[in-house]
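ping. complex inputs:
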Amino acid sequence: KAGVTQTPRYLIKTRGQQVTLSCSPISGHRSVSWYQQTPGQGLQFLFEYFSETQRNKGNFPGRFSGRQFSNSRSEMNVSTLELGDSALYLCASSQGQWNQPQHFGDGTRLSIL
Amino acid sequence: AQKVTQAQTEISVVEKEDVTLDCVYETRDTTYYLFWYKQPPSGELVFLIRRNSFDEQNEISGRYSWNFQKSTSSFNFTITASQVVDSAVYFCALSEANFGNEKLTFGTGTRLTIIP
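pong. complex structure:
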């Protein structure tokens, strides 16, 4: 069974640009969550999608947005990039119940110059 | 609000020694799940174990064991006879009972280094 796939693995952007990250969940998983990992703030929850609807959102500015498609694949978009957006962005999928473990991808490492 | 504390930032032990990683959590819910994840240098978070708030039975799985105590809000993780491959960052996480709330609150992680 294939795991969670995130593309691209690495990305370099400059301030002010926008970026789109992609996540393909494990087959059969309907929930996709996104997390930001930085040395200073650790792992922080961004948002979660289930059946194409955003169910939960963390405390991030509106520059961070996402969506989910009918095949459960998800994209995350960050507009007007700032230096502080440099981070490892992790995607996780699960069956969609709070007590089920989330399975993570390898992440996309975003560097802002 | 929920919170997870991993007071140990870094631990180094010599191979074959036992090591315990501490996790203390805070939550107002009576129903919740606790998780341990391992993050090797490759970056992927690997799920290790989950425990629900009603199951305080401790578990042993190979070289890994977990000690869950609601009285002290702790969910500690022990590796017996450590190996170099155990070197990684370990995260404790909490999920509160709320259908539709797929949010994990993570601790800050403990970097474990096994010295050969």
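Chain B touches chain A through 27 residues (CB under 8 Å).
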